[in-house]
Amino acid sequence: MENSTREKKLKSDDGVFKAEKIASAVDRVINVIKEALISEKLLPGERLPSESVLSKSLSISRGSIREAMKILSAFGIVEVRRGDGTYIAKSEHKVIFDPLLFSLILSKANMKELVELRELMEIAIVKLIVKNAEDNDLKLIERTIVDMKNKIFKGNENQPEQLAQLDIDFHHSLGRATKNRLVEKIYDFVIEFFTPSIKVAHEKLTDKGLTALNDHKRIYHTLVKRNIKEAIDTVEKSIAEWKELISIEPYKEK
């Protein structure tokens, strides 16, 4: 009933689906949906007006509406339900290639810019953890450290791929501990972008992951103490070590 009421409202001339005489027809449809989501005129789980209604409201061909919906569906923004209609996705969907990650790759940033991005993010991350994290959040961080320790001391051989994944798990747990969903999402993008360099770092380590493990422990203990200055100092030291490890090809700045 609620969706039906909202659908009737969205079909009316309320300005949500108002065409702008800019960009391509497909881009215009995507921009309209994007702006409606940002302004909360569209909400997760709501059904969009039919293809014909959107075509008429936006003065755009049905073919362009259809193409825009394919793109939005690929990005996990809408769900196309056969025989039922098109809905704004209720939850985040893991798409094949995230558009924000794609845009970072296309930016072709040099190593200096990449390092600055990671430094900026991780300093902000530890500040928010000190401010917002609860005991359970810190326990999740500790769990990733224990998992890495077990892998290092109980593993039969050096496994850089598995250690790199545990390293990534540690960073994801930091993002969750900020208690800020926007920061967590952006940080997840950043870590995914840096995943290849994290793997390279573990391949270059000669101590079977002990350097990473000790860095994680130091960061964790400063967070438990809620000491922002120590946390920032420890993060900066960890990043400095990472920079040394990836200063070789193919990550060396040209």
Q: Radius of gyration, Cα only, in angstroms? A: 23 Å
Characterize the largest beta sheet: strand count, sense, and whether it forms a barrel: 2 strands, antiparallel
| Number of E strands | 2
Task: Name the CATH class of the largest domain.
Answer: Mainly Alpha
> Counting H and I runs of at least 4 residues, what is the number of helices?
11
Query: Which structural class do the helices and strands define?
Result: mainly alpha
- At the fold tier of CATH, the topology name of the largest domain is Four Helix Bundle (Hemerythrin (Met), subunit A)
Please state the second-level CATH architecture of the largest domain: Up-down Bundle
How far apart lie the N and C ends?
A: 60 Å
Mean pLDDT figure: 81
**CATH 4th-level superfamily of the largest domain:** GntR ligand-binding domain-like
Q: What is the general shape?
A: elongated
How large is the share of residues in beta strands?
Answer: under 5%
Tell me the domain tally. Answer: 2
